Each structure stands twice: as C-alpha cells, then as structure tokens.
Amino acid sequence: MTLVACIGGGQLGRMLGLAGLPLGLRFRFLDPSSDACAREVGELVVGGYDDPAALDDLARGADVVTYEFENVPVEAAVRVGALPPAAALEHGQDRLREKELFRSLGIPTARFGTLDETGLPAVAKTRRLGYDGKGQRRLDRVGPIADDELAEELVRFERELSIVGVRSREGETRFWPVAENIHREGILRVTRAPARDAPQDDAEAICASLLDELGYVGVLAVELFEVGDGLLANELAPRVHNTGHWTIDGSATSQFENHLRAILGLPLGSTETRERCVMINLIGAAPGLDELLALPHARVHLYGKEPRAGRKVGHVTLLDPDEETVVRAVALADAADLA
Amino acid sequence: MTLVACIGGGQLGRMLGLAGLPLGLRFRFLDPSSDACAREVGELVVGGYDDPAALDDLARGADVVTYEFENVPVEAAVRVGALPPAAALEHGQDRLREKELFRSLGIPTARFGTLDETGLPAVAKTRRLGYDGKGQRRLDRVGPIADDELAEELVRFERELSIVGVRSREGETRFWPVAENIHREGILRVTRAPARDAPQDDAEAICASLLDELGYVGVLAVELFEVGDGLLANELAPRVHNTGHWTIDGSATSQFENHLRAILGLPLGSTETRERCVMINLIGAAPGLDELLALPHARVHLYGKEPRAGRKVGHVTLLDPDEETVVRAVALADAADLA
Lengths: 339, 339
Known about the structure:
Two copies of one chain form a homodimer.
Chain A: E1 3-7, H1 11-20, E2 26-31, E3 43-46, H2 52-59, E4 64-67, H3 74-79, H4 86-93, H5 95-104, E5 112-113, H6 115-118, E6 122-126, E7 136-139, E8 149-153, E9 159-167, E10 173-175, E11 179-184, E12 187-193, H7 200-213, E13 218-227, E14 230-237, H8 247-250, H9 255-263, E15 277-283, H10 289-293, E16 298-302, E17 312-319, H11 323-336
Parallel strand pairs in A: 1-2, 1-4, 2-3
Antiparallel strand pairs in A: 5-8, 6-7, 6-8, 9-10, 9-11, 9-13, 11-12, 12-15, 13-14, 15-17, 16-17
C-alpha cells in the first residue's frame, strides 16, 4: 500500500484523503489537535509542526510527504523532504519575497514596498502568517509601517480571480478554468467557475511561469486581481486551495486527486470542465443537512468540524444552477453563520 | 454528528463511507475480519454477525444501522433494527421465497420449482447463501434435487440487465438507468450503463412493485434477463450493488449516497445520468495504478484489499469511452487477474 503523509490535518488534508482512498492510497496526518478533522480518513499523529520527533513519526514509512497549509515551518518541510518543494513554501510565507518573485518573472502586481512606492490609499499587510484577511489594515494617510509589514497599493479591481494549476514530477502542467471569487470580511464566500470571459491564457501563463521557476510538483493556486488592462498577481498558495474546491464535483479530475497524482509520480488527470459551478463556503456553522440536500444539483461537503465563528465548516457546490438556487444557497449559508 | 452503523465492512461498506464522509456522517462497521477494508473510513468492530455483544457494540449510539450484504442473519438485522427492513433480507436470502414474491406480484420469472415444473435443461441452485455463481449446477437430464436446492429453467436470454432503485422513508422512489451486465465464471466483469435500448419503464415497474411491497427503505437492485418478449426477474439484492458502482462517477447522486439519504430520512438526490459509463471490475489483483490512471477518462476505485483469486479488489469506470479504451481496460484487468 502506498502511504501519503501530510503536515496538517484540516479540511484540505481530509479532502486529499477522500480523493486518495479510492486510489487505494493510505494517509497519515500530523496536527497539533487530536480533533483534527482529517483523522477520519487516516492515521493521526498529534504533535507540533516544529517537533522533530512528531515529524519523524509522520514520515516513517511514507512514500511521499506533503502539506496542506502554507505556514508549515520550512525546516519541517525540508526535514521530511516534503513536496511541493520548500522553495514554494518560502515564497508563500513571505509577502515581500512573493512579490519579488512575481516581479522577477515579469508578472504584474500591485505596487508594493514603502508608502513612497505604493502611494495612498494603501494596505499594510504582515509579511508572514497572514490568512483570510487577518493582519491587514488600510492606510489612508502616511503612517508608520512596522518592520514585519509590507505596504501594498490599494488596487481598485474589477474582479478577484484565481487559477489553480498542477505540475508533475516530469514538468507536465495542467490548469483548471479560472475562477471568480467573492470575499467578505477577508474570507472566501463564493467561487464561480469557469469565470465568465476570463483571461484564461494570461492566467495560465502566470501560473505556468511560477510552476516552472519553482521546480514545482503538485497543485499551486494563484490569486489574481482583474483590472482594466489585465491581471495583477496577488498571492500564491503552494497547496490545494479553497477556490479549487469546485473541481471535486465540476471537473474530470479534482485538484485533490491531481495533487496526489503529481507528488506520487502518477499520470495527471484531465482538468476538463463541462458544467458551470458555484461553490459556497459554509462559515461558522453548517445549515441542516436536509436543507442543503434539498437544493437542486447541490453537492454537499461538510468537514466534520465543530461550529465556531469564522471557521470554514463545509462547502456546497451547485452544478449548473439557476440564480434563484444560488441566492437560496447563499441565504442558507448566511442564516447558519455564527457571525 | 450522525453515526451510521453497517453490518459488514467490505468494499460496499467502504464506498458507503466514502459517500457519507463528505456529508459529515461518521461510520462504524461490524466485520469478522480485523482487516476489513471499510476500516479506513470508520470505526471497526471485529466480531461475528451472529454475536449479540458485537451487534450491540455496533449499534450503540448509532442513528441508523444498515448492512452491505444480503446474507446477514435476519435475527441480527432485527436485533439492531436495521434498514432496509428484514422482510427484504428474508426474501433475498432464499431463492424460493424470492421467486414466489416475484410471482405474487405478477413479475415474470424463469420457471422454477421441481424439474417437472422447469423442464430441461435446468439449473439447480442452492436456496440459500449462493453468490457470484457459487452453488449452481446445470442439469441436462433428470436427477436428484436436494432439499436445499431449487430448480430453475435454463433461460436463453439476450442480455443480462439490472436496475437499481431507491425508496425513501416516505415512500418516494427513484431509479437509475438500466445497466447491461457481462458475467464470466459467475462473477460480474463489465457493466454498461445506460444500457442501449433498454426497457427502462418495464424495469422500473418491476423494481417499484418490489420496493412498495416490501415497505423498503434504501437501495434495492434487481437482476433481470432480457428475453425475446420482455424481462424476467432473476434475483433481488437488498443493498447497494456492483452493477450500480458506475453511479459514483456517472450519476448526479450515487447509489451509495442515496442509500444513506434514504435510511437517514434525508431528501433523495437526483439520479440524472448524462454520460455513457462502462464499469470494469478488477478481479484477483489490480493492475498498476499508473496504467489505470493513464486510461482516458477513467475513474479508479481500489478497495485496499490484498490480492486473492476471484476477489473483487477494485473497479474502473470509463466515462463516455471509445471502444478501443474499453478493450484496453478489459485487457489490463484480465492481465492482472490471478485466475
């Protein structure tokens, strides 16, 4: 049996497991919480991500080690020889290095650096460990920027888009259709894919140049701003990504399965997409299962997590829905939200 | 959390678990083998199906109890209040009662009973505990029929078909398209669904009358022979069925998910099917994962079982394949078969 080890045992690990079990793969997860929701699809090692003994327990006998969040300590990833390679992690963890990487590859970004470089209004973002909009503050006038912060131009974008791609060990790449994303309070709420009239080729070119530059293996997501005259790269995430969850139900091969195929040296699967998908995150708490399952053509994904404000506890993907169903589903999600 | 308990921890239990985990359900299985392949998707109680203590361990705290094979002792199913109801199990376990049920509902069958009633050639089948063609022998001349055997007319059928249906607690029914099945040495090898030019309405009528008569809740499969002038019912299976595995990838809702929805009193899901599917069983041993995944539009399902002659270790579903791909996939499966 092939054993896949994963640093992190949250919902992304759980969905990796659900994608891999039908391939006959087995899973082991490392997580500080004995309650980690991936424990239902594999063995769970409870321990810190920086605990060498726990990392060794995780990696023992594994055919490959991967991770499900971008704030894995780089030394931990290196210790267990994780894929995607640590270079991606280093860039994904530091907004300044990330932006410099974009610049070095000729990928357009918002202006960044000091307030002199960005102009006003700007956003001060912590360089490290920010996620879901945390660690960000808007600057409308000149003020101090901490050493661990980076100023970015406040971009007036038309849409937030993202592209998810995968690269095999041999360097073959595949991409899913560009998705359009709606955030609220810094948390992704809705993804529509394929995004209407999206600049697929431009987005693929950005993702491809990052995949190749990083000698990447696995799934990489790039968040993009669509502005009047093109795309700006905002962030990369060296992992399976919330804006790619729709691929479980909407694509011939999901991001989770193709991530596993890539890191295990197996042939990549088709990313063909036939239906228009709308993915709605369930935040805080999930609506009743009976209500969710009564939505037409809804595919329900609950993560087995206890309710908590701001927590992603599940998602629903609507296949080729009419707008009335989308509105109903969003209202259901909002009514259950603890916020 | 909703807990589903299942008598039996084989591949059908495993696929029930894989369908239910995304709905936030948890699973517990009872199986005599500590190696039962469903253990990867839930808790495993190791014990005999006729062991009251083990059955009580299985059922403790469960929201519903179901089963994944038709030879569950009826007393066991009654003890834990399993769904589908025990009446279905009683008929599914005894070929004579099964045939008499068909007759009482006006569902055509092959002639059965004594050799006087069937004529020659005939097939003598054990009344109980037969599966995958075991316990059957052909009779070309008059000879003794044991007390635990039933004689059936040897039917010269055009095709073997099957229909899988589901009935909710409220009596709502849904059906998947009729499938065409190819057996070899009594074991299902290939299912094509939807079957071309199949008598869908007639098959649904047969399945519906059984579902209603039995006050059924859950998924029921009926194996059918297509003969010149119609359908003959051959067997019923009061459970998810190998000839419905294609629904995981080919239908809006799989047989596994709809079985769970039905027994839990949740709304049934759409059985809409858009693509032509070919499901190929992997018997004995599985081909290499790299070879399987290289088949175009193949969805691979391995059960995590050790190889053994005659054992179902996985299946592959090809979505809308050309015949060349079907031939390649069958050849791959045959080359790996230990027989």
